[in-house]
């Protein structure tokens, strides 16, 4: 069915006069009459009838009008939405680790919006663990995720954008509590509270110990860094965790790790097999330009 003819039909139904409808459509009256005849032939029923000098809808035309209006409205809305997307507007769906949601992601999103005041851009924010974020990215639930580096077999593009320093935390009465910094090998004799398997930080801490050929004594395992900090404060063991402001509020000692040298990197990741909307791609490029070089964005101790 010719969409132009459908628009002509709706306009004639509103105006109820061929000459005036043709003028408003910027076409000739014969062209309008031809379009309506073609539409009626295709549908097999008359849509209009004469009523003096005016034209009125038949009962078939009345039934068809609401359908035509809904169809054109849905089509116009779809076209408008796609045109906005093409202009770099629309929704940007971000997934990230909770620690990045405290400052890093909110600052970048606010700065991106400030840099694009003439565009209608919205963000959808979702925090989770690394594996859940990567699974969501694979399922196209996110445009971009910010987390630990994915495994090479996931075939995703991962670019380091910021980092977080790891620290050793111990109870206040622990033999190591008097130190301000520590070689991690000094922590080996003591039982550790460790990140559970499946946590993005499990591999990070494993790699840290493996870098000098060591295996820690694991006393307890759990997924949440906040829970680990709470257990350390109560004397259940010591732990390597990312630095977070919560540590300052608990009764424990924070030791900077002097060796082996290591900082946890966070990556901006997207699925190269999936089309990235213009708005999401603009934010990706914004992060690359601003998220790496500005020290105020770093998640550091």
Describe the structure.
About 40% of the residues lie in helices and about 25% in strands. It is of the alpha/beta class and about 300 residues long. The protein folds into three domains: about 5-85, Arc Repressor Mutant, subunit A, CATH 1.10.10; about 90-160 and about 265-295, Periplasmic binding protein-like II (D-Maltodextrin-Binding Protein, domain 2, 3-Layer(aba) Sandwich), CATH 3.40.190.10; about 165-260, 3-Layer(aba) Sandwich (D-Maltodextrin-Binding Protein, domain 2). A five-stranded mixed beta sheet has the order 4-3-5-13-6, sandwiched between helices. A four-stranded mixed beta sheet has the order 8-12-7-11, with helices on one face. α1 packs across α3 (about 30-45) and α1 crosses α4. It is rod-shaped, with a radius of gyration of 31 Å. The termini are far apart. Mean pLDDT is about 90; it is low at about 295-300.
Strand composition percent: 15-25%
Order of helices and strands: HHHEEHEHEHEEEEEHEHEEEH
The name of the CATH architecture of the largest domain is 3-Layer(aba) Sandwich
Q: How many DSSP H or I helices?
A: 9
Q: Report the biggest beta sheet as strand number plus sense, adding barrel if it closes.
A: 5 strands, mixed
**What is the average of the pLDDT values?**
89
How does the SSE layout of this entry go?
Layout: H1 3-15, H2 18-25, H3 29-43, E1 48-51, E2 54-57, H4 59-86, E3 90-96, H5 104-115, E4 121-127, H6 130-138, E5 144-147, E6 157-164, E7 166-170, E8 181-183, E9 191-195, H7 200-210, E10 217-222, H8 225-233, E11 239-242, E12 253-259, E13 264-270, H9 278-290
Parallel strand pairs: 3-4, 3-5, 8-12, 9-10
Antiparallel strand pairs: 1-2, 5-13, 6-13, 7-11, 7-12
